[in-house]
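Sat 14:20. Reprocessing the chain from the morning session after the first attempt stalled halfway. Input below, unchanged.
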Amino acid sequence: QSKVDQLRVNYKSVSKRHQLTIDHLNPLAIKQATAKVSAAEQELEIAKRQLSNSVIYAPARGVVVYNPLYFGNEYRSIRVGDPVYANQRFMVLPDMQLLKVNFYIPESELSRVGDGQDVLVRPVSNSETRLLGKITHIGTAAQKLPGKPQWQRYFQVTVSIEQSENEVRPGMSVVVHVRSYNNQNAIRIPRRVVNWDGKLPFVYLEQNGEKQKKDITLGQANTEYIEVIGGLVPGDKVFVE
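Finished this time. Tokens:
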């Protein structure tokens, strides 16, 4: 009997502890677990927002171009692991359909260019490609250029070009031809056929099978041809020395 009574006492004690666990410990554990779940949910939402903020959507189509920056003693494009800061312009997304070309023109040639003037742009990497453009800006201050005579001054000129395909890319080198003079009826001859007697230009004409000297008056010129405004008529044959 005593054993039974002891078991009954033990049973009551166990039952009481069990009830206490149900009434007090479980609610506390549930409350703690609920708090942990809530904290985890908040951390998850913060992580989602941070992930969303790390994805940048461009307002227009373009090709990523990295701007070189100073990192310590290095001047280079950004790399993985480099620190970046607010408002730091380390890359751009240029509109590939509307590009700008910057070049410099000598001070002595400034009067021959103007806003809205047509130009022809040729990529150095593809001499067969020709792109039309217009001068959209001429610098207001003259400046020196590295590698050029110190007495010479240059003005920066900006040209806008339109391309249907990606013929040129940002950073490429191009040759710019500025049409500063236009005469549809001009008589022109190769520069190499012009001879000089002091400051007087002349050419050798073929007349009756003979070579005769002919003084001429020159007009505008480019790298290959010179305009003749006096002394020659269309159809004249000149000798190449």
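The chain has four domains: 1-55, 56-95, 96-178, 187-230.
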